[in-house]
Design brief:
Polymerase_NTP_transf_dom; Four Helix Bundle (Hemerythrin (Met), subunit A); Nucleotidyltransferase domain-containing protein; alpha+beta; NT_sf; Beta Polymerase, domain 2; 55% helix; 5 strands
């Protein structure tokens, strides 16, 4: 029986899918878990299709030969726009990572070479720098969340706050260093690749909150102090955030 969780088997499914449904694609890149060797027997196929022209970019979720496919369709113009204008401002460029980590399953061509060069340039440029206001917002949010965690005696509430803190601290540590961030499992992977020590501390702190709350509270305090120190430390008193003047409803008639 063929093992459909191997890269070669998945590649064959993707090739048949592209040939049958998207014959005008000029590049087809398998990304995600299958590109990095982290797949499981039920992993989806992440597939980026490049065309000479599309009226609009789109994504689709479909099933091919029993395997779920998450499909992203672009031409060079829409790919550039999504990466630079939609994704990059948030510090995460998943499509860029798909291109860089993945493999083109169609015949090599100039379009794929152009796409890869663009992805490499975006990745090398790094995310936008965090401005002063953004840093203050993040410092304040982490400081108040840490206070909530330390004050909490309810295991469920504490775990919910700890999950929030994990994401905020990991993202800040990456962004403050000018490194691309990620979401979900990719956040852990980016952090581990950048700073394995902090990744281990955050992972350990989160696990402790679930198993030994006082120890978890202490562990989060330590890692939060380490992450906040290079960007100005904790922030509470003095934090001001004025709302835009136009944020007001019209007077009632």
């Amino acid at each position: 029986m063929t093992d459909i969780s191997t890269y070669d088997a998945i590649r064959a499914i993707a090739v048949r899918l592209v040939r049958e449904r998207y014959p005008t694609a000029v590049a087809a890149i398998i990304g995600g878990s299958f590109a990095t060797g982290r797949q499981t027997p039920t992993s989806d196929i992440d597939l980026l299709l490049l065309f000479d022209h599309v009226d609009c970019a789109w994504r689709d979720t479909l099933v091919a030969e029993g395997r779920t496919v998450e499909l992203f369709a672009h031409d060079m113009a829409t790919f550039t726009y999504f990466c630079k204008e939609i994704d990059a401002p948030g510090g995460k460029v998943p499509l860029v990572m798909m291109v860089m980590e993945g493999g083109n399953i169609l015949a090599p061509g100039a379009q794929h070479a152009q796409l890869l060069a663009l992805a490499q340039a975006i990745a090398a440029a790094g995310p936008p720098l965090l401005d002063v206001e953004s840093l203050q917002r993040r410092r304040y949010a982490i400081t108040t969340a840490l206070e909530d965690l330390v004050d909490s005696a309810h295991p469920g509430e504490a775990l919910a706050v700890a999950c929030q803190l994990y994401e905020a601290l990991a993202d800040l540590h990456l962004r403050a260093a000018g490194v691309w961030s990620g979401g979900g499992k990719h956040l852990f992977r980016r952090l581990q690749a950048f700073d394995a020590a902090v990744a281990g501390q955050l992972d350990g702190a989160l696990r402790l909150v679930a198993s030994d709350l006082p120890a978890g509270q202490h562990a989060f305090g330590q890692v939060a102090a380490a992450v906040l120190a290079p960007v100005g430390g904790p922030l509470l008193e003095g934090f001001t955030l004025p709302a835009p003047a136009h944020w007001r409803s019209a007077p009632a008639a």
